[in-house]
Amino acid sequence: MIYDKKYYLCEGYTTKKLKDKIIFYHQIKSGGTSVSNVFLSLFKKPYRILGTHIKNYYYKSEYENYLNNINQISQNNYDFICGHINFLEFFKDRFSITAIRDPIDRAISHFNMLVENKVIDENISFEECYKKEIIPINPITQMFNASNSEEALLSNLDFDTALKNLKKIDLIVNFENIDRLINYIISSYDLPNVLYQRLKKTKVNRFKKTKINFNIIKKYNELDLEIYKILTKNNLYFNFPNTANKRSSSKYFLYSVDFKVENHNKLLVSKDEFNTFSNFLRKNKFSIENVL
Length: 292
Known about the structure:
Elements lengths: L5 E5 L11 E4 L6 H11 L3 E4 L12 H7 L1 H7 L3 E4 L11 E6 L2 H14 L9 H6 L7 H5 L5 H4 L6 H8 L4 E4 L3 H11 L4 E4 L14 H10 L1 H12 L17 E5 L10 E5 H13 L3 E4 L2
Parallel strand pairs: 1-10, 2-4, 2-5, 3-4, 5-6, 7-8
Antiparallel strand pairs: 1-7, 8-9
């Protein structure tokens, strides 16, 4: 079954090299799965903190998994850590990254994903999804509401704390620039070029675009909508460098959902192997978009 007819090609550019270890705060349904899976494969010592804030997904939340593995995380000094994890001072020495999506678009995408994966029925009341916490309430505010372990255990959301902590993030990316984020990281850390398909894309829109449903989303994402407004109005997103100085790399990382190369969906290949695969894609009516 064809998953997505478009591939994205990141070949990087010359820019300042970074050596800092990374923490990627992955907002659910904000393009982070593709970012996480690419760099979990490319960094030498990566680590994913499992779990989410969402009920019915995991027996343990991401925060519980973090607490249970805190010694392992401390001792291994991983190059790249990702997960739906609370903002914590524990990671303050790392280069921090997050991607933020319009809260209304994010909620709709989340609903469609749950229906497609048969977690919920498409006729369920949208408000019920929030009341049962199947879809998270103010997920941006939730993620950045805490600075330490004690605060992370509290249930009350504090808008000012969340916004203050979010502003501490080194690199805040608008969801629309998620591909440019991958291009920036491979450039900054001198990683192989990347050709990939986006993941977790829902195929059918099951969301009923009624005034009632939009008002429900606004009601349960009031704080996130205000944060999103502030980020956009004050242009607090990362400004990617505009450069024509492309780098030269003979290594390519292929990340394909529909096709396997040498029996692998994820594989490091030479430039000749990359050219062979890209020609195969074009012959089969797939498109390849160059990320600048």
